[in-house]
Amino acid sequence: MAFDDTKTEDFKVVGQRVKRPDGVDKVTGKAKFGADAVAPGMLFAAIVRSPHAHARIVKIDTSKAEALSGVKGIVTRADFATGLTGGDLDVLENVMAGEKALYDGHAVAAVAATSQLIARDAAKLVEVEYEVLPHVTDVDKAMAADAPVIREGAADQSVPEGMHANVVRYHESGHGDIEAGFAEADLVVEDSFKTEATHQGYIEPHACLAQLGGDNKGELWCCTQGHWNVQKLCAAMLGLETSQLRVTASEIGGGFGGKTAVFIEPVALALSRKTSRPVKLVMSRSEVFRATGPTASTSMDIKIGMKKDGTITAGQGTFRLQGGAFPGAPMEFTAMCAFAPYNLQNVKQVGYDVMANRPKQAAYRAPGSPMAAFAVESVIDELCKKLGLDPIEVRLKNASKQGTKASFGPTWDRIGLVETLEAAQSHPHYSAPLKEGQGRGISCGFWFNHGGETSVTLALSEDGTAQLSVGTPDIGGSRASMAQMAAEELGIPYENIRTTIADTATLGYNEVSHGSRVTYASGLATIKAARAAVKILCARAAAKWGIDEDAVVWENGCAKPSGPNAGEFDPLPIDKLTRSMGRTGGPIVGHFEATPEGAGVSFATHIVDAEVDKETGQTKVVRYTVVQDAGKAINPAYVEGQFQGGAAQGIGWALNEEYIYGEDGRLQNSVFLDYRIPVASDLPMIDTVIVEVPNPGHPYGVRGVGETSICPPLAAIANAVSNAAGVRLKELPMSPPRILAALEDQANNG
Amino acid sequence: MQYHTPSSFDDAVALAKDAQGVTRFLAGGTDVLVQLRADIVTPDVLIDIKKIAGVSDITREGEGWRIGVAVTGAEMSEHDTLGKEWPGLVEAMDLIGSTQVQGRATLTGNLCNGSPAADSVPAMVAAGVTVSVTGPNGERKVAVEDIPTAPGKTSLEAGELVTAVHVPARGKSGGDAYLRFIPRTEMDIAVVGCGVNLRLDGKKIVEARVSLGAVAPTVLLVEEAANAIIGTELDDAALDALAEAASAACNPIDDKRGTIKFRTHVAGVLAKRAAKIAYQRAEAAS
Amino acid sequence: MVEVNLWSGLRAFADGKDCVEVDAKNVGEVLSALVEQYPGLEHVIEAGVSVAVDGKVIASGLTEPVKPDSEVYLMQQLKGG
Amino acid sequence: MIHVNTKINGDDVEFLCDPRETLLDALRDKLGLTGSKEGCGTGDCGACSVTMDGRLVCSCLVLGAEADGKEIGTVEGMAEGENLHILQEKFIEHAALQCGICTPGILVATKSLLEKHPEPTETQVRYWLAGNLCRCTGYDKIIRAVMETAADLRKAS
After folding, report:
1. Domain limits at D138?
2. What is the average pLDDT value for chain A, to the nearest integer?
3. CATH architecture under which domain A38-133+206-282 falls
4. B262 touches chain A (CB under 8 A)
């Protein structure tokens, strides 16, 4: 087969539910996560954090802490690089406060000591004098004229004149004539929605072990979704040459976007440099909630017009996203994803990036998209109800497909939305009878997916097995799918491949494991690296046989003459070729470095049944089905796992999870007791349907699957709850007090 | 922090009496350790009472029960007879935390933590449970409802500790129940809790105690709610009166777990539901 | 010449137009031509943009070819969680 | 410092600890048994689940000092040498883990469940595991792995 072919059938290993290679380590407790590393002479660190939402730091007195026996060093902002600008400055400012503490939990100093307990005690002895400033944490209030300014001059040129200084970026897109579109409609529904910030809720708190000497050469071990990004940012913040800092990614205990940023790594490095000792820094759960990167909170207005036959005539959305005390709330994704499932002639979306006294938001699974779907799909559901139309029929009627114009501009390539809708429609769940008190909801969801810088090496061993080095941390079983793709190409057993997540010294730059890019981009790179190795294998066989390289093909792990004209030779199996590789031209290594640009988008349709106790407002999700386009499922078990995980996180977001700030601007619920992620008894089994509409941009048709699964649940559950309760819920989470309040409002106002 | 493991209550009292600074008794530790880790309370002296003889025993005391102060929720749930006589009390204890927490948490700890949202406390109050308290000035017996005085505060004097829990005789035709409202199905602190304990004569309720948790600074024993169902057969009118009395007794706060309005309303809903269960149990025991 | 569609928020920086013509053979040339013709767009392009060429979203690559009849949309930079 | 004598996974062990240190701190920092994880430190996530005298507990809610004279079981003691416990096998087979941070705690908890309740219903499994948070899987494949293990164990006995 040619080396740039697309393969769509006759897979031997791809598509199998193979056992993951790291399985044994993970079920026996041997796997080493962020907090599991030790180093001789290691110190333990603790961070001093602001108890104020907004305060000027007048003075930091470390003398009492330094006097405590066992304390070896204390750092403040003065121990980091100066002169940073733009995004790097924002990251540093978030990692360690400069002149002002900008949110409850903002780091202001850090201590290294000989034990964890001493470090914690010392942190309490650091005396910080604050001048408390007025604060704001709500998105709408942060935009109001009387809101305190969080940082002057943070807005970029996109922001129209006259906006509050807390509005730092503005987006507007769309096409057609929305007013004409609304005029064409038989019914226009307009409504406003709010969602609270949620947290990725990974079970492993951030942890790292840092070593940095006076020679400015460093070693860093940390749990991260992308260690090259950590290397780059830490080097900038500490004034190091990037290459002098080697970063190794530990096993990662969940990320979901939250471990794409750095929080503690530069601090541990600074402490190590100051103390000349290795420093371990592990966040507490409360620190994770207060001072890592939750999602944006939102306030949204949606207006959609529909004809009696279900045709959507126009859609308009305004999306205000609060992303903490720094620019970067993903409002443009919210805007671009909002109407992506629909083929609209007239559409307009507006986005505002708003700062408030909260931690800097970070990515969380399809950042910005779930909120958009919640608002838009709720309004579509309301239109369907009022016009007496079937919600799937309406979505099919308006669905985006190949050749239609996307709401954000371009013409769609091959996409699988219609296929997911049809599969949902014919799924037994959609026609199953509901019990008293239950309601059904459906929603579509969309995410772009991403390619990104990728570098992979595949080295053959003398026995014909292969070592595959990839640079994207394995957050959900990707070592298995990489090995499957390599085995498929090499024609050797899956077990003969060992996949390693290489450190920053071993491969070229690899972008973070985000954007659902790993199976797509590292997978593509793995296939290409394997093909490069196969090409060398074929050349070695050709040399041995004395025939032309092009006359050799690779099949089932053997080099063979391409046909009768090429000559009559017995197939040469891989191990025969690798055993002699030292004497036939040297080690055989395939590699691939590129920025693949063909990440196919992914659509999903979810169906959910919910039961609402109208006396208490409690909701129970009783049945859930995920239908999503995976392009090609390399390992269906782990594709299903992504579908189920996204749905479960969406259920939490919809019903109970939220950041609760008090009047004092402090986070009220920084423990799992009160930040209520779904527990096992909250959920039903989550049924899955894998739709496969191949992505033309990947050799096997892979589309990323990790993120799209969280886009539909918020809206699907809101639609189910609204149907069950008989009242539309417009604010997330749909907590019991909110549901009861909505029922009461309805009773009072008819 | 000093850590002690006295082998008798007298030793425990002596340690507590002489202790300087913040003193805490350690039974299951499911509150003490959380407060320690979160820097809410770092005791100067921690007195582990689990090595005192008999603290892990559940024993008959007349027709009732004596429950040791270190008996865990799991041990209560696994007991042959206790839960048959006092299902509401055992279920209330069982609602606290996870399986793991059940392996450690105790009735006494739940009571002495002083939380108005403690699940076992309304059930104990409804059941008429008393505790023995020992201190420098000797021993006294106190009704459970008289132990908590405010969130995180109890009527125990310095150096005093609870040494046993006394559950009264179940007697004939009685039933109890405890229900709580939480947003999830597990792992939450009660937003509202309600315990009901009643006795029937035929179909008529002749005795009742109704308690509420998480709707006031302390767990409440609501006489008006009990009076609303005493003398009735728990018909709809009685249930409505019960709910109204329960809601009327509420004096809650707005916080991260619920609103005043929500708590007040749900207190009535739970009172009705718990009363129905207690009534059925009493009928079954007749 | 290639037609480049801008998101409407950019009109303020492109003389009120949401579709402009540039002379370019690849994505990098599209971006540099845009900055040259409409300096107001520089901050946007510097901050990072993606470009959709014939329906395919080019997240960052500058060398992707663009044909005169290609459908080209400037998009806000894509990343993910 | 308190001198603690205990038995872990059948081995006699002694260590010194500060009275404020938890059993989890002792396991991880003193004894190198890092299979038990700290996800919360407040007994809400179950990643540190161990057994103490056969009873399932969160090791973050037990002081190191309290382990004196007790028998502790951790995830490191589940497999017998190279032979994985059937639950460990089933978790791998069913893809019942993604990131794997909650897995040790869930395995210890489910082993304890099946010892007490060899024929659990799905609801029973879900409530038993309510104190073991998993953020990746939505629990579906975990529940399936546990139910199938229980069925296989019944067939074998």
Report:
1. 86-156
2. 97
3. Alpha-Beta Complex (3.90)
4. yes
